[in-house]
């Protein structure tokens, strides 16, 4: 049935010609809108997402034909402390599970980013000034040069024949003598070495060494250290975008057997399970390690502070080899130093027992011995409950300076006391960093999203859960809430980017808010204020379990959340993730009515109480409730208005139900661009309060302004929108009636910066 006929049938009491004309206007308007490809805030976002297929379904789950590649590694590496050079040989077994034959492979050479000429973002500190520190000048100019980058010694096939390789900065193309057929595998090996860089030389340093002049010792953080296979998948083919320091990594899962040769007195913390405990630890240390596996209430010291100090003084000249195995991980990292103190504690999860371990130099005492392993335990428990049980045998936190960086089963975390003392603010930052980096085991180390493309998918989802961990386990510390994002989303939009921006294409100063905090706040809004905790938590857990050990994309998350909650979230995803709009609702007008009752003198009441604002300018609109309500007359309903209905409402009962009650009509404008649910707090004359919640769908017909009517038993003295900043309204000064003369939160923030 077309719209014109429908309108005429529904409105028979009205003049046919009049409604024929109106229906033509509506029909033309709709045709014109679709002809212009109009996309309102509530229109489906299907055209913004990849189409579902047999690999990735419309529900957000992996499809029946989903596939991914796999790469197993056998690595032997040697750390030369005298030269600070790491050298190694690796054998890669690559499984082509795709439906395509491959003529070549792409391998990541991440250490090449440290070569001179690559971006190091020294100008992030503001460029050259008339007064500038030597370290800042080093960031800008690399005045003290240093060697960096791989030396590829060989690449050979399983028969020992050389493979031709072409290097393009941080990527190496391995040309195959014959195509690698779909469903088959390939074994090849690479020999390599590179100079480990001094972390203090880089502004954005995720790995390298930290030198301690006082005792002439070094802590090595070894990551992105061996040539690693790029991801090849169904949505991008080869993910071989160059490493530019910001966008991190897309990696395949596999099994690792790794041998690491280091100075004899070094301790090595690494991804995986230690295979030769008795060869690398003393009998006393090995015994303590076994005790730690049964200690669920407190950490056990495996290597004591006194033993670590003795190691610092008595530098070994011989070496020893540590052996590790790791199954079904997407990367491998390790730390090595003779300075390490080592403690460990068992954590019992419903389906797994994990050994939480911390490695730290004496400079971390006493805080690290008190807090690090405890923070690991808290993260393991909260994240496991929210998603799935942590599946690996160990979880490790290593102390270093100025960093928070994650890898499977191990993370490198900053935060140290100064002369043994640490402020509560500094301790909060340290604990939050440890929780956050341990949490990355879930996102992206297991739920393996593409960090090179979508930084927010690992940082945002992880920050969302680390915020929950801090709120539950460390309530004395601040955890992010929607109000925290106001100053950012209300800021200058000329350089602001949406969350759905690829990782490297953003101003560095906006990374924290865009990729960490804004996605976190968005998920909090969905959980607490749009969907509800029970449904949201189940759907979020569904996403994590659907995609663990797989490679999800944004569409897979968005579709799973809708699929798991029966909630249309296209309006939210479009606004929060794809635009830089913000929430700014204005309570632009309030009208107060009472229904005229037969025992009232309507003329006297109208003179005394009338508060009609129809047709008045803003300056003439009421500023408060002091003039009382407007009296409205409710007339009998005409038979004509019922059309073909034979039944009738009881007009007197309607009047009775409204007798003595207060009717409030609110006009709310959308100034910020984002459509959001509306939270209205009513304060009554007796001091009590009540809250009404309207879904975002109230904006469907008019995205700029709505009018809504409420009936209240009590008289209202104040009305406030979004009183607790659940939707991060950027200007609270226009949220209330009577209007509160105050500075907005953003104005206060700007003043505080001066």
Describe this structure in words.
The chain is α+β, with helices and mostly antiparallel strands. Among the domains are: 3-35; 69-252, Immunoglobulin-like; 585-753, no CATH class. Helix content is 27%, strand content 26%. It has 17 helices and 31 strands. The strands form seven sheets. A seven-stranded mixed sheet has the order 4-7-2-1-13-17-15. It has a six-stranded mixed sheet with strand order 16-19-20-21-23-22, sandwiched between helices. Helix 7 (367-386) crosses helix 8, helix 7 crosses helix 9 (455-473) and helix 11 packs across helix 12 (533-547). The longest helix has 21 residues, at 511-531. The radius of gyration is 32 Å and the shape is elongated. 39% of the residues are buried. The model is unreliable at 1-36 and 604-615 (pLDDT under 50).
List the helices and strands and how they pair.
Blueprint: H1 3-10, H2 16-35, E1 70-80, E2 85-95, E3 102-108, H3 134-141, E4 151-157, E5 165-168, E6 171-180, E7 185-195, E8 208-212, E9 217-222, E10 228-229, E11 232-233, E12 237-238, E13 254-263, E14 267-270, E15 273-274, H4 277-280, H5 283-292, E16 300-303, H6 305-313, E17 319-329, E18 334-337, E19 341-348, E20 353-360, H7 367-386, E21 394-399, E22 404-407, E23 410-413, H8 424-439, H9 455-473, H10 486-489, H11 511-531, H12 533-547, H13 554-565, H14 570-578, E24 585-595, H15 602-609, E25 630-632, H16 651-658, E26 662-670, E27 678-684, E28 689-694, E29 705-712, E30 716-721, E31 736-737, H17 745-753
Parallel strand pairs: 1-13, 20-21, 21-23, 24-25
Antiparallel strand pairs: 1-2, 2-7, 3-6, 3-10, 4-7, 5-6, 8-9, 9-18, 11-12, 13-17, 14-18, 15-17, 16-19, 19-20, 22-23, 24-26, 26-29, 27-28, 27-30, 30-31
Helix pairs in contact: 1-2, 7-8, 7-9, 8-9, 9-11, 11-12, 12-13
């Amino acid at each position: 049935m077309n719209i014109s006929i429908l309108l005429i049938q529904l409105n028979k009491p009205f003049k046919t010609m009049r409604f024929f004309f109106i229906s033509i206007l509506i029909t033309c308007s709709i045709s014109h809108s679709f002809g212009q490809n109009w996309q309102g805030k509530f229109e489906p976002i299907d055209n913004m997402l990849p189409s579902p297929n047999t690999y990735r379904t419309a529900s957000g789950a992996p499809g029946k034909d989903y596939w991914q590649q796999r790469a197993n590694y056998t690595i032997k590496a040697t750390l030369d402390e005298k030269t600070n050079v790491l050298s190694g040989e690796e054998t890669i077994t690559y499984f082509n599970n795709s439906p395509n034959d491959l003529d070549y492979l792409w391998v990541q050479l991440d250490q090449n980013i440290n070569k001179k000429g690559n971006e190091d973002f020294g100008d992030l500190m503001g460029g050259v000034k008339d007064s500038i520190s030597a370290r800042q000048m080093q960031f800008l100019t690399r005045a003290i040069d240093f060697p960096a980058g791989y030396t590829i010694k060989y690449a050979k096939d399983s028969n020992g024949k050389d493979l031709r390789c072409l290097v393009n900065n941080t990527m190496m193309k391995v040309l195959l003598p014959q195509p690698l057929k779909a469903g088959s595998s390939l074994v090849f090996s690479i020999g390599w070495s590179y100079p480990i860089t001094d972390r203090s030389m880089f502004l954005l340093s995720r790995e390298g060494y930290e030198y301690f002049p006082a005792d002439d010792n070094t802590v090595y953080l070894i990551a992105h250290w061996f040539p690693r296979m790029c991801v090849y998948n169904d949505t991008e083919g080869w993910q071989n975008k160059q490493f530019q320091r910001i966008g991190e990594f897309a990696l395949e899962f596999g099994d690792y057997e790794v041998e690491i040769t280091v100075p004899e007195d070094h301790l090595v913390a690494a991804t995986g399970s230690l295979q030769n405990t008795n060869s690398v630890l003393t009998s006393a240390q090995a015994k303590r390690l076994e005790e730690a596996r049964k200690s669920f209430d407190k950490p056990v010291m495996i290597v004591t502070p006194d033993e670590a100090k003795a190691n610092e003084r008595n530098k070994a000249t011989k070496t020893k080899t540590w052996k590790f195995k790791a199954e079904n991980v997407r990367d491998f990292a390790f730390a090595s130093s003779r300075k390490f103190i080592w403690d460990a504690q068992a954590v019992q999860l419903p389906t797994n027992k994990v050994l939480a371990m911390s490695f730290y130099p004496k400079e971390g005492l006493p805080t690290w011995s008190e807090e690090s392993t405890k923070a690991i335990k808290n993260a393991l428990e909260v994240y496991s409950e929210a998603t799935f049980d942590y599946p690996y045998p160990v979880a490790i936190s290593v102390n270093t300076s100025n960093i928070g960086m994650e890898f499977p089963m191990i993370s490198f975390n900053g935060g140290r006391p100064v002369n043994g003392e640490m402020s509560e603010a500094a301790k909060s930052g340290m604990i939050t960093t440890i929780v956050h980096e341990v949490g990355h085991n879930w996102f992206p180390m297991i739920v393996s999203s593409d960090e090179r493309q979508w930084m927010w998918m690992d940082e945002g989802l992880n920050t969302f859960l680390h915020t929950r961990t801090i709120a539950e386990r460390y309530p004395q510390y601040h955890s992010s809430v929607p109000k925290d994002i106001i100053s950012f989303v209300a800021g200058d939009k000329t350089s602001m980017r949406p969350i759905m921006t690829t990782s490297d294409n953003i101003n560095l100063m906006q990374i924290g808010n865009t990729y960490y905090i804004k996605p976190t706040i968005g998920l909090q809004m969905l959980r607490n204020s749009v969907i509800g905790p029970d449904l949201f938590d189940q759907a979020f857990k569904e996403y994590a379990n659907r995609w663990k050990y797989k490679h999800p994309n944004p569409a897979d998350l968005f579709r799973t959340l809708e699929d798991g909650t029966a909630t249309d979230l296209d309006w939210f995803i479009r606004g929060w993730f794809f635009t830089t709009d913000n929430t700014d609702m204005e309570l632009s007008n309030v009208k107060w009515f009472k229904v005229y009752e037969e025992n009232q003198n309507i003329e006297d009441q109208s003179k005394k109480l009338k508060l009609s604002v129809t047709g008045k300018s803003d300056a003439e609109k009421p500023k408060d409730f002091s003039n009382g309500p407007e009296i409205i007359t409710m007339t009998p309903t005409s038979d004509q208005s019922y059309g073909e209905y034979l039944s009738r409402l009881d007009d007197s009962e309607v009047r009775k139900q409204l007798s003595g009650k207060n009717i409030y009509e609110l006009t709310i404008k959308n100034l910020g661009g984002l459509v959001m649910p509306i939270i209205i707090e009513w304060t009554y004359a007796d001091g009590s309060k009540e809250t009404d919640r309207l879904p975002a769908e109230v904006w469907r017909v008019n995205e700029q302004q709505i009018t809504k009517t409420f009936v209240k038993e009590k008289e209202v003295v104040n009305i406030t929108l979004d009183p607790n900043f659940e939707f991060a309204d950027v200007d609270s000064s226009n949220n209330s009636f009577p209007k509160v003369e105050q500075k907005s939160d953003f104005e206060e923030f700007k003043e505080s910066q001066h």
